[in-house]
Design brief:
The chain is an alpha/beta fold. The chain has 9 helices and 10 strands. It folds into 2 domains: 3-63 and 147-262, Metallo-dependent phosphatases (Purple Acid Phosphatase, chain A, domain 2), CATH 3.60.21; 67-144, no CATH class. The chain has a 5-stranded mixed sheet with strand order 3-2-1-9-10, with no helix packed on it. The structure holds manganese (II) ion (MN). Manganese (II) ion is lined by residues 36, 63-65, 164, 204.
């Protein structure tokens, strides 16, 4: 039995399947997915469907893109309620109309939502290539909101945290600050974060971006903090940026022996 972690799939469903083959993932193993299933890549829908039928030995945690997707669904529902649009939950045409209305209202009313709503066009693309409905979006929203922000487990009797962006033990002022850190932290996750005598596995910052603290030419970024006796891994090797950056790929770590797999 082994425990594997990878994430930042961003709709790269083919690479996702290739990685499962590459590690020979079986019913006896455990997989923790480190978030960001949607946006940017070609197959967000396939990832959402796969997660809907997620096997018991897989724990998907939440990434910022997943949380943002869920928040867009909330926004659509709010627009529907506020303007009494009576969107039928199982009507594709109604959802298309609601989406267009929401975009129009955000823009014409100078609302902040206009700047970030469906930022990567994922919902818009789904609407024009498939017959999804508000029922589908609501299922996916609820599924995402059930995902934990992090998973803490024990590897060789040492604590190990898997999180999308960053983890730290210090108390946060409030839940919102904590959630922001788990979903969005970058260098601060490595400077002020971590866990004593343990290991933190995260993604979020692709190791293909030159100038970023985690740049490592598309290889997993690894750092050891002596003061905390904490090992950090950034396993986001920028799979979705394949073709844009050399060596961009999907990486996976096996926790028991810290072996890295690439696809
Ligand atoms: Mn992310």
């Amino acid at each position: 039995m082994s425990t594997y972690v990878f994430g930042d799939i961003h709709g790269c469903y083919n690479e996702f399947q290739k990685m499962l083959d590459r590690i020979g993932f079986s019913d006896d193993d455990r997989l923790i997915l480190a978030g960001d299933y949607v946006d940017r890549g070609p197959d967000s829908l396939k990832m959402l469907h796969w997660l809907e039928n997620c096997p018991k030995n897989v724990t998907p945690i939440r990434g910022n893109h997943d949380e943002e997707f869920a928040s867009y669904v909330d926004l659509l529902r709010q627009v529907d309620a506020k303007w009494s649009l009576q969107t039928q939950i199982d009507s594709h045409d109604d959802l298309v109309a609601l989406y267009d209305t929401a975009k129009y209202l955000f823009k014409t009313n100078g609302l902040n939502a206009a700047l970030f709503f469906d930022l990567y066009g994922t919902i818009g693309k789904l609407l024009h290539t498939t017959v999804i409905t508000m029922a589908d979006l609501t299922i996916w929203r609820d599924m995402i909101r059930k995902m934990p922000y992090y998973v803490k487990l024990s590897v060789h009797r040492r604590p190990c945290v898997v999180v999308h962006a960053g983890y730290r033990e210090k108390d946060f002022d409030n839940d919102a600050d904590a959630q922001d850190f788990y979903l969005y932290a970058r260098e601060e996750a490595y400077k002020g974060g971590g866990i004593r005598h343990g290991m933190v596995i995260a993604g979020h910052t692709p190791t293909v971006l030159e100038g970023e603290f985690a740049y490592n030419g598309g290889r997993v970024f690894h750092q050891y903090d002596k003061s905390k006796d904490c090992t950090f891994y950034d396993i986001d090797c920028g799979c979705v940026f394949r073709g844009k950056y050399p060596n961009a790929r999907l990486a996976c770590i096996r926790l028991e022996d810290e072996t890295i797999f690439y696809v």
